[in-house]
Amino acid sequence: MKRKLLIMAMLGLSMGLLSGCAATDLQTTIPLGSGSGPRDVATGIQLLVLLTVLSLVPAVLIMTTSFVRIVIVLSFTRSALGVSQLPPNQVLMGLALFLTVFVMAPVWQQVNDGALQPYLQGNITSEEALATGSEPIRQFMFRQTREKDLALFVYLAKLPQPRNQNEIPTHVLIPSFIISELKTGFQMGFLILMPFLIIDMVISSTLMSMGMMMLPPATISLPFKVLLFVLTDGWHLIVRSLVTSFQ
């Protein structure tokens, strides 16, 4: 027992010495007080802003591209089939991401040619690159945004009546674009659900007429829905409809 207490005391003493040395090193290596000048403060602020912007990049890529509509329609398709795990979430999200890249490729090419490459070559400033690069994305969002949704956020922002698209700020355009995409995605999802709903109704009425009320209709209708989806080449039709809906 005494030996254990002695070992614990030695360990505690060692940890105390190590913490004291670490504190001494921190005090000697990290300058505190008025040693940092305005240039160091400005560099720290720029780094903080850069990290904040990088953390918002996934949300910006999702909410300002075709991803929202695509993932909603694909989710409706899986729900209409009646199989909650097929295709898996990884496959569904991967397909949505690659379709988003395919749809947005012309827009990103314009951003690269008009803003990114001139900025990397030093021909324009960062402010000019940001203004030039955001214009193709704004035009894409304007094409997919309904006037009713745009007018709603112009009213909520208490802005004067805009005379053209250039007078509409981006923070007003983005939420208008998002709710327009949500509405379009739900409209396409409704059209996908209807044929499968008819199959469910036919199977349910058939089972009731045969007196087989204890048999779940979803169990019988699932093979027929999958068969219909395969015979009509459903994935081809859905992907084609999604891509052409942005043109």
Report on the architecture of this protein.
- This protein has helices spanning 2-29, 38-63, 67-81, 89-120, 126-144, 147-156, 170-209, 217-231, 234-245.
- With 247 residues, the protein is mostly helical.
- α6 (147-156) crosses α7 (170-209).
- The longest helix has 40 residues, at 170-209.
- Mean pLDDT is 76; it is low at 1-35.
Helix and strand topology:
Elements: H1 2-29, H2 38-63, H3 67-81, H4 89-120, H5 126-144, H6 147-156, H7 170-209, H8 217-231, H9 234-245
Helix pairs in contact: 3-4, 3-7, 4-5, 5-7, 6-7, 7-8
Give the number of DSSP strands: 0
Computed over alpha carbons, the radius of gyration is 29 Å
**Which spans have pLDDT < 50 for at least 5 consecutive residues?**
1-35
Question: Helicity level, as a percent range?
Answer: over 70%
Helical segment tally? Answer: 9
Tell me the β content. Answer: under 5%
Order of helix and strand elements from N to C terminus: HHHHHHHHH
Helix/strand structural class: mainly alpha
What does the average pLDDT come to? Answer: 76
Give the overall shape: elongated
State the separation between the terminal residues, measured CA to CA. 81 Å
- Main sheet makeup: none
